[in-house]
Amino acid sequence: MTLRITLVRHGNTDANVEKWLQGHTDTTLNTCGLSQADRVGERLSTEKIDKVYCSSLTRCHQTAAAITAHHPGLQTVYLDGLRERGFGKLEGQSIRAAFRGYNRSLQSSDNHVKAAGGETEAEFRQRICTTFQEITEEARAAKETNILVVTHGGPLRTLTHWWVNELGYISKDDTVVPAGNHGNTGVTCVVLHDNKDLGNVIEIHNSMSHIQEDTGPAPESV
């Protein structure tokens, strides 16, 4: 059985614009984000979707709702495991202020986040990858062939890096940037084959065609 998974980042929030750490803070979409959600909903309106898996945070709820409005009766499962990385007491601070004096690629940054009650990169990665595996296993057990995942930029960046660098997913058009940020309501699609000879394929990566005219560089995924 082939399993097609469409993944969407939530729409724009004031925190994205103002560049402060959201993490587990339950922010909502701003006017731009609501418009983006409507547009991605229209884009996916004719797609076959068997079930939706969504982060338990409101900004993802709102994005998922704009999509499921075109698919009446579709079941949505809300999961804490799909949340953005938790930054503890650093949440609500500007990204620059929260990490002043720290190189975010170094262990000192991880210790800084952990001391504030947040997740280390390893803890975050383990949570996201485990949740993705659980979703795929559940979908296969239910014989679902098309599912939608609505989550955040951090999880999408982490998953992309894992798919490409560790699991050997193939990029259909060589546009995948494993360490790159995903834009608000950017659409990614992966196809998983039972036949290992076919490999798993990233068919679409961070596609913004539904809002391309409004889109600048992808904001920091936090």
How would you sum up this structure, described in words?
There is one protein chain. With 222 residues, the chain is of the alpha/beta class. It has a single domain (2-87, 121-214), classed as Phosphoglycerate mutase-like (Rossmann fold, 3-Layer(aba) Sandwich), CATH 3.40.50. It is built from seven helices and seven strands, in the order βααβαβαααβαβββ. The chain has helices at 14-18, 31-43, 58-68, 95-98, 107-115, 121-141, 153-165; strands spanning 2-9, 51-55, 76-79, 146-151, 170-171, 187-193, 201-207. Strands 3-2-4-1-6-7-5 form a seven-stranded mixed beta sheet. Strand 6 and strand 7 form a beta hairpin. The mean pLDDT is 92. It comes from Phycomyces blakesleeanus (strain ATCC 8743b / DSM 1359 / FGSC 10004 / NBRC 33097 / NRRL 1555). GO terms for molecular function: fructose-2,6-bisphosphate 2-phosphatase activity.
Compact overview of the structure:
The protein has helices at residues 14-18, 31-43, 58-68, 95-98, 107-115, 121-141, 153-165; strands at 2-9, 51-55, 76-79, 146-151, 170-171, 187-193, 201-207. By secondary structure, the protein is an alpha/beta fold.
